[in-house]
């Protein structure tokens, strides 16, 4: 995106008019980590209308059926008159530059639905950077009057916590597991999930997994009561099939029940706290970028690397050396790297 081509006021107007090309370009701009784009992105974000959507995070291991479920839920919602945006936070893009989520072809019907906007996951970056991009892409979608935003993430590591910090309700998809298999579900997930759905409760593929899914749901419900205290929202567990669409409306109803439980005040408080957390995430992300760009750090990097690898320098001392270099005043004779 060449600088001269980006006019934040024009983009903001395009987003307000729900122009898909403008929405897409606006998201590309807010996803960019180039410093000159960041300034334009801030300008754009300040010009956007603020609408509140129903923000829902959807997580689960690869293969649990997330994209099939989102396709089903998304088309169900657009048929009811909603406008649905889909974003993805993909931790694999952080590590490998590759992507397993958000691929448009995975949601073929929804991707061509005029009332839906499916955005592939952002390009490689730090998790903090991807979170920044996603939160701001959400603001773009809300300004374009998408009243439901679904944020998909793969059930691995930190990305779920990141997504839970950006949405009103966190939905966890799982498969029928009972007894010991329940241990396989990370405890952390049970703490952040607001709604849990045991997916693939159908007889597609021969086996009738409905009964199995029901008993797994019952068992999971019991386990959850132990995790959550009295008076707190205890996540309900339901069964569904993203493929046949059975129970998908029930899952959505539970999402709405959770919002109702939060109440308008509770939701406002939750969002305010998320903004505070997001503020610090932005600071950490910016510091990370500065560290990467620092010419002073670049100067000591090789030397520190060699010293640590040879065992000459211990990690804490090495970290001190890097931080001392970072804190030094910029040397005017050294050109900044990148
Ligand atoms: P994701 O990796 O979590 O996004 O999972 P996908 O939606 O790509 O689905 C993975 C596989 O499971 C595909 O072969 C789907 O056809 C299948 N699948 C997804 N949802 C269901 C479901 O509700 N029932 C059954 N029987 N299969 C499903």
Average the pLDDT over all residues and give the rounded result.
85
Provide the succession of SSEs: HHHEHEHHEHEHEHEHEHHH
Domain module tally: 2
Distance linking N and C termini: 18 Å
CATH class bucket of the largest domain = Alpha Beta
Biggest β-sheet: strands ordered side by side in the sheet: 3-2-4-1-5-6-7
Can you walk through the features of this model?
The chain is of the alpha/beta class and about 350 residues long. The protein has 2 domains: about 1-50, Up-down Bundle (Single alpha-helices involved in coiled-coils or other helix-helix interfaces); about 50-260, P-loop containing nucleotide triphosphate hydrolases (Rossmann fold, 3-Layer(aba) Sandwich). It contains 13 helices and 7 strands. The chain has helices at about 10-15, 20-30, 35-45, 65-80, 90-95, 110, 125-145, 160-165, 185-190, 210-225, 250-295, 295-310, 315-325, and strands spanning about 55-60, 85-90, 115-120, 150-155, 170-175, 195-200, 235-240. The protein has a 7-stranded parallel β-sheet, with helices on both faces. Strand 5, helix 9 (about 185-190) and strand 6 form a beta-alpha-beta unit. Helix 2 packs antiparallel against helix 7 and helix 12 (about 295-310) runs antiparallel to helix 13 (about 315-325). The longest helix has about 45 residues, at about 250-295.
